[in-house]
Amino acid sequence: MIDRSSPRVVGAVTGFVVGGLVWAGLDLLGIWSALKFDFLVGALAIAVIVGAIAGLWLTSRRVLWTFAALIVLALVLVSFTPIAPALAHPLVRADSTSSGKLDAVVILSGGITGDNAMDSQTLDRLLKGLEVQRESAGSALVISRETFTRGGRVISDSADQARVLALTGVTAPVLYIDSASSTRDEALRVKRLPASRAWKRIALVTSPLHTRRACAVFERVGFTVTCIPAESRERTIKNAESTGERLGVFQGWLYEFAGTTRYRMKGWI
Fold first, then answer.
1. Which of 76, 125, 130, 256 has the most other CB atoms within 10 Å of its CB?
2. If you count DSSP H runs as helices and E runs as strands, how many of each does the chain have, helices first?
Protein backbone atom coordinates (compact mmCIF):
# COMPACT_ATOMS: atom_id res chain seq x y z
CA MET A 1 0.00 0.00 0.00
CA ILE A 2 1.26 3.45 -0.94
CA ASP A 3 1.99 5.76 1.97
CA ARG A 4 0.49 9.07 0.81
CA SER A 5 2.41 10.96 3.47
CA SER A 6 5.76 9.66 2.23
CA PRO A 7 8.05 12.53 1.16
CA ARG A 8 8.69 10.76 -2.16
CA VAL A 9 4.98 10.37 -2.89
CA VAL A 10 4.33 14.00 -2.02
CA GLY A 11 7.32 15.04 -4.13
CA ALA A 12 6.13 12.98 -7.11
CA VAL A 13 2.61 14.44 -6.94
CA THR A 14 4.03 17.95 -6.60
CA GLY A 15 6.37 17.34 -9.53
CA PHE A 16 3.45 16.02 -11.59
CA VAL A 17 1.50 19.23 -11.00
CA VAL A 18 4.50 21.52 -11.56
CA GLY A 19 5.33 19.64 -14.76
CA GLY A 20 1.83 20.36 -16.05
CA LEU A 21 2.18 24.03 -15.12
CA VAL A 22 5.53 24.21 -16.93
CA TRP A 23 3.86 22.80 -20.05
CA ALA A 24 1.09 25.41 -19.78
CA GLY A 25 3.60 28.22 -19.27
CA LEU A 26 5.60 27.19 -22.32
CA ASP A 27 2.36 27.08 -24.32
CA LEU A 28 1.43 30.60 -23.19
CA LEU A 29 4.84 31.87 -24.28
CA GLY A 30 4.30 30.29 -27.71
CA ILE A 31 7.16 27.80 -27.45
CA TRP A 32 5.25 24.85 -28.90
CA SER A 33 3.99 26.89 -31.85
CA ALA A 34 7.46 28.31 -32.54
CA LEU A 35 8.90 24.79 -32.54
CA LYS A 36 6.03 23.62 -34.77
CA PHE A 37 5.26 20.94 -32.21
CA ASP A 38 1.62 20.03 -32.84
CA PHE A 39 1.35 16.98 -30.57
CA LEU A 40 0.48 19.00 -27.47
CA VAL A 41 -1.09 16.06 -25.62
CA GLY A 42 2.19 14.17 -26.02
CA ALA A 43 4.14 17.17 -24.74
CA LEU A 44 1.85 17.41 -21.72
CA ALA A 45 2.27 13.70 -20.97
CA ILE A 46 6.05 14.03 -21.15
CA ALA A 47 6.01 17.14 -18.95
CA VAL A 48 3.97 15.57 -16.13
CA ILE A 49 5.90 12.30 -16.22
CA VAL A 50 9.26 14.07 -16.13
CA GLY A 51 7.90 16.32 -13.38
CA ALA A 52 6.74 13.36 -11.31
CA ILE A 53 10.10 11.63 -11.66
CA ALA A 54 11.98 14.83 -10.84
CA GLY A 55 9.83 15.26 -7.76
CA LEU A 56 11.16 12.05 -6.24
CA TRP A 57 14.50 13.65 -5.30
CA LEU A 58 15.16 16.94 -3.60
CA THR A 59 17.87 18.13 -6.00
CA SER A 60 15.89 17.48 -9.17
CA ARG A 61 12.80 18.94 -7.48
CA ARG A 62 14.71 22.17 -6.93
CA VAL A 63 15.74 22.22 -10.59
CA LEU A 64 12.10 21.75 -11.62
CA TRP A 65 10.93 24.57 -9.36
CA THR A 66 13.70 26.84 -10.66
CA PHE A 67 12.67 26.13 -14.26
CA ALA A 68 9.03 26.86 -13.39
CA ALA A 69 10.05 30.11 -11.68
CA LEU A 70 11.99 31.21 -14.77
CA ILE A 71 8.92 30.60 -16.93
CA VAL A 72 6.78 32.68 -14.57
CA LEU A 73 9.40 35.44 -14.66
CA ALA A 74 9.38 35.35 -18.48
CA LEU A 75 5.57 35.60 -18.53
CA VAL A 76 5.67 38.58 -16.17
CA LEU A 77 8.32 40.39 -18.22
CA VAL A 78 6.51 39.73 -21.50
CA SER A 79 3.06 40.64 -20.19
CA PHE A 80 3.81 43.68 -18.01
CA THR A 81 6.65 45.43 -19.86
CA PRO A 82 6.99 46.81 -23.42
CA ILE A 83 9.69 44.26 -24.28
CA ALA A 84 7.47 42.30 -26.72
CA PRO A 85 6.55 45.27 -28.97
CA ALA A 86 10.21 46.36 -28.91
CA LEU A 87 11.30 42.90 -30.09
CA ALA A 88 8.58 42.71 -32.74
CA HIS A 89 9.08 46.13 -34.32
CA PRO A 90 12.18 45.19 -36.40
CA LEU A 91 10.27 42.28 -37.97
CA VAL A 92 7.82 44.60 -39.71
CA ARG A 93 8.90 45.70 -43.17
CA ALA A 94 6.73 48.26 -44.97
CA ASP A 95 7.97 49.47 -48.36
CA SER A 96 6.60 52.42 -50.28
CA THR A 97 4.34 51.49 -53.18
CA SER A 98 5.61 54.53 -55.09
CA SER A 99 8.97 52.84 -55.78
CA GLY A 100 7.88 51.61 -59.21
CA LYS A 101 5.19 49.93 -61.29
CA LEU A 102 3.85 46.72 -59.79
CA ASP A 103 3.41 43.84 -62.21
CA ALA A 104 1.67 41.60 -59.69
CA VAL A 105 0.26 41.62 -56.18
CA VAL A 106 0.97 38.34 -54.34
CA ILE A 107 -1.19 37.51 -51.32
CA LEU A 108 0.11 34.79 -49.01
CA SER A 109 -2.09 32.37 -47.11
CA GLY A 110 -2.31 32.63 -43.35
CA GLY A 111 -4.37 29.61 -42.37
CA ILE A 112 -7.76 28.00 -42.73
CA THR A 113 -10.48 26.87 -40.34
CA GLY A 114 -12.08 23.46 -40.21
CA ASP A 115 -15.29 25.04 -41.50
CA ASN A 116 -13.81 25.80 -44.95
CA ALA A 117 -13.21 29.46 -44.17
CA MET A 118 -10.18 31.69 -44.18
CA ASP A 119 -8.86 32.42 -40.73
CA SER A 120 -8.44 36.03 -39.67
CA GLN A 121 -4.85 36.34 -40.89
CA THR A 122 -5.75 35.10 -44.37
CA LEU A 123 -8.71 37.45 -44.58
CA ASP A 124 -6.57 40.39 -43.43
CA ARG A 125 -4.03 39.62 -46.14
CA LEU A 126 -6.65 39.18 -48.86
CA LEU A 127 -8.40 42.47 -48.08
CA LYS A 128 -5.11 44.39 -48.04
CA GLY A 129 -3.96 42.72 -51.25
CA LEU A 130 -7.17 43.67 -53.03
CA GLU A 131 -6.70 47.26 -51.86
CA VAL A 132 -3.12 47.35 -53.17
CA GLN A 133 -4.15 45.77 -56.49
CA ARG A 134 -6.93 48.29 -56.97
CA GLU A 135 -4.40 51.11 -56.52
CA SER A 136 -2.02 49.47 -59.00
CA ALA A 137 -3.97 49.39 -62.22
CA GLY A 138 -2.89 46.66 -64.62
CA SER A 139 -1.20 44.42 -62.04
CA ALA A 140 -2.02 40.74 -61.87
CA LEU A 141 -3.33 39.18 -58.67
CA VAL A 142 -1.79 36.02 -57.22
CA ILE A 143 -3.57 34.36 -54.31
CA SER A 144 -2.32 31.48 -52.19
CA ARG A 145 -5.14 29.18 -51.09
CA GLU A 146 -5.26 26.06 -48.97
CA THR A 147 -6.80 22.63 -49.39
CA PHE A 148 -6.20 19.59 -47.22
CA THR A 149 -7.93 16.41 -46.11
CA ARG A 150 -8.91 15.71 -42.50
CA GLY A 151 -10.67 12.50 -41.52
CA GLY A 152 -11.61 11.81 -45.12
CA ARG A 153 -13.13 15.30 -45.50
CA VAL A 154 -11.71 17.87 -47.92
CA ILE A 155 -11.24 21.28 -46.32
CA SER A 156 -10.60 24.31 -48.55
CA ASP A 157 -10.89 28.08 -48.33
CA SER A 158 -11.39 28.45 -52.10
CA ALA A 159 -15.13 29.11 -51.90
CA ASP A 160 -14.67 31.61 -49.07
CA GLN A 161 -12.03 33.49 -51.05
CA ALA A 162 -14.29 33.45 -54.12
CA ARG A 163 -17.11 35.06 -52.10
CA VAL A 164 -14.85 37.91 -51.00
CA LEU A 165 -13.57 38.43 -54.55
CA ALA A 166 -17.15 38.55 -55.86
CA LEU A 167 -18.13 41.13 -53.23
CA THR A 168 -15.20 43.38 -54.11
CA GLY A 169 -15.79 43.13 -57.88
CA VAL A 170 -12.23 42.22 -58.84
CA THR A 171 -11.62 42.55 -62.59
CA ALA A 172 -7.88 41.86 -62.67
CA PRO A 173 -6.63 38.47 -63.83
CA VAL A 174 -6.36 36.15 -60.83
CA LEU A 175 -3.76 33.40 -60.57
CA TYR A 176 -3.75 30.81 -57.79
CA ILE A 177 -1.18 28.68 -56.05
CA ASP A 178 -2.54 25.80 -54.01
CA SER A 179 -1.69 24.23 -50.69
CA ALA A 180 1.91 25.40 -50.30
CA SER A 181 3.57 23.88 -47.25
CA SER A 182 5.68 26.92 -46.32
CA THR A 183 6.53 30.48 -47.30
CA ARG A 184 9.49 29.10 -49.24
CA ASP A 185 7.13 26.75 -51.11
CA GLU A 186 4.84 29.68 -51.93
CA ALA A 187 7.78 31.64 -53.34
CA LEU A 188 8.87 28.74 -55.55
CA ARG A 189 5.35 28.12 -56.82
CA VAL A 190 4.87 31.78 -57.71
CA LYS A 191 8.25 31.72 -59.47
CA ARG A 192 7.10 28.74 -61.55
CA LEU A 193 4.03 30.57 -62.86
CA PRO A 194 4.60 31.23 -66.60
CA ALA A 195 3.38 34.81 -66.21
CA SER A 196 6.06 35.58 -63.60
CA ARG A 197 8.79 35.57 -66.26
CA ALA A 198 7.62 38.99 -67.40
CA TRP A 199 7.31 40.51 -63.94
CA LYS A 200 9.90 43.05 -62.86
CA ARG A 201 8.43 44.00 -59.48
CA ILE A 202 5.80 42.39 -57.26
CA ALA A 203 4.01 43.55 -54.13
CA LEU A 204 4.00 40.88 -51.45
CA VAL A 205 1.17 41.11 -48.92
CA THR A 206 1.33 39.25 -45.63
CA SER A 207 0.86 39.77 -41.89
CA PRO A 208 3.04 42.46 -40.25
CA LEU A 209 5.36 40.18 -38.26
CA HIS A 210 5.79 37.89 -41.27
CA THR A 211 6.81 40.61 -43.71
CA ARG A 212 10.59 40.69 -43.26
CA ARG A 213 11.07 36.92 -43.51
CA ALA A 214 8.54 36.44 -46.32
CA CYS A 215 9.91 39.24 -48.50
CA ALA A 216 13.46 38.01 -47.98
CA VAL A 217 12.39 34.55 -49.15
CA PHE A 218 10.81 35.92 -52.35
CA GLU A 219 13.85 38.09 -53.01
CA ARG A 220 16.05 35.02 -52.55
CA VAL A 221 14.26 33.20 -55.39
CA GLY A 222 14.74 36.17 -57.71
CA PHE A 223 11.85 38.62 -57.29
CA THR A 224 12.15 42.37 -56.79
CA VAL A 225 9.74 42.90 -53.92
CA THR A 226 7.70 45.73 -52.48
CA CYS A 227 6.74 44.51 -49.02
CA ILE A 228 3.23 45.35 -47.79
CA PRO A 229 2.02 44.50 -44.26
CA ALA A 230 -1.69 43.83 -43.93
CA GLU A 231 -3.68 45.31 -41.08
CA SER A 232 -3.75 42.83 -38.22
CA ARG A 233 -7.14 42.00 -36.72
CA GLU A 234 -5.80 38.97 -34.88
CA ARG A 235 -3.44 40.85 -32.57
CA THR A 236 -2.48 44.42 -31.73
CA ILE A 237 1.02 45.17 -33.03
CA LYS A 238 1.73 48.89 -32.80
CA ASN A 239 -0.14 49.76 -29.61
CA ALA A 240 0.00 46.59 -27.52
CA GLU A 241 -0.61 47.74 -23.95
CA SER A 242 -2.69 45.08 -22.20
CA THR A 243 -1.12 41.89 -20.86
CA GLY A 244 -2.98 39.78 -23.42
CA GLU A 245 -1.91 42.01 -26.32
CA ARG A 246 1.74 41.97 -25.27
CA LEU A 247 1.69 38.21 -24.80
CA GLY A 248 0.17 37.80 -28.28
CA VAL A 249 2.88 39.98 -29.81
CA PHE A 250 5.57 37.96 -28.06
CA GLN A 251 4.10 34.72 -29.37
CA GLY A 252 4.16 36.15 -32.89
CA TRP A 253 7.72 37.41 -32.47
CA LEU A 254 8.95 34.06 -31.14
CA TYR A 255 7.31 32.19 -34.01
CA GLU A 256 8.98 34.45 -36.56
CA PHE A 257 12.32 34.39 -34.75
CA ALA A 258 12.31 30.59 -34.86
CA GLY A 259 11.18 30.59 -38.49
CA THR A 260 13.84 33.09 -39.53
CA THR A 261 16.51 31.04 -37.77
CA ARG A 262 15.40 27.86 -39.57
CA TYR A 263 15.31 29.61 -42.94
CA ARG A 264 18.79 31.09 -42.48
CA MET A 265 20.18 27.69 -41.55
CA LYS A 266 18.68 26.23 -44.74
CA GLY A 267 19.95 29.11 -46.90
CA TRP A 268 16.45 30.24 -47.86
CA ILE A 269 17.04 33.88 -46.89
1. 125
2. 10, 7
